[in-house]
């Protein structure tokens, strides 16, 4: 029980401590309505080709990210990450992402993708049941109709959120390393991973690189995920596959025989 409630208890304790120290601002809560119903297409519907082109590239990348998130979630949940069951789960997850993003656009919000922190939540709580996910999603949908609840969560100070998510982000990295380590890495795979990581981290840590660039370039390459993902895709297409080593090509240890 303590393990399952660790994240919520940590947030509550941190929130309370921050409020006692005057770090929480509740002044905006009085301006929020009690209940709000979503209005589809509140801002109308139009197409901006300057934004359409980056999204055509970013959506396949978010699908790739979702595949990674779903794979990591399956791994920490003790589910297979190969075979028919795994691929059926991946296809359903990517399809759900597309449907959710379409619904989000109609309800005036941003596209939705999988939440990689779920991997850390599963590792910390030990709960990976999809039925629990259905129950929680229903609660979140109802809470989404109450702006004051959203205001309370928005008032959580960043240090409190950072403290609660530190282990979760670390767990995501560990799950990713575990998945990569289970695959045989040849020189080609090593180069793809190394260059993709370098490009993605470069985009994240040197954002001024895109200062003054056109919006199309910024929308595509300013994200570490898109930059690293595009790099991995291009290198996978361009770099030739390493031919498998046959037994006859393996080095043979020679035995030194003393002359008689």
Write a brief caption for the model.
It is built from 10 helices and no strands. It has 260 residues and is mostly helical.
Describe what you observe in this structure.
- The protein has ten helices and no strands.
- Helix content is 63%, strand content 0%.
- The longest helix has 28 residues, at 49-76.
- It starts with 5 loop residues before the first helix and ends in a 22-residue tail after the last helix.
- With 260 residues, the protein is mostly helical.
Number of strands: 0
The stretches of 5 or more residues where confidence is low (pLDDT under 50) are none
Proportion of β residues?
under 5%
SSE order, one letter for each helix or strand: HHHHHHHHHH
The percent range for helix content is 55-70%
User: How far apart, in Å, are the first and last alpha carbons?
Assistant: 75 Å
SS field, number of helical segments: 10
* Average pLDDT over all residues: 81
Q: What structural category do the secondary elements indicate?
A: mainly alpha
Q: Would you spell out the secondary-structure blueprint of this structure?
A:
Elements: H1 6-20, H2 49-76, H3 83-106, H4 117-125, H5 130-143, H6 147-154, H7 158-181, H8 187-205, H9 215-221, H10 224-238
Helix pairs in contact: 1-7, 2-3, 2-4, 2-7, 2-9, 2-10, 4-7, 8-10
State the main characteristics:
single chain, 260 residues, mainly alpha, 2 domains, 0% strand, globular
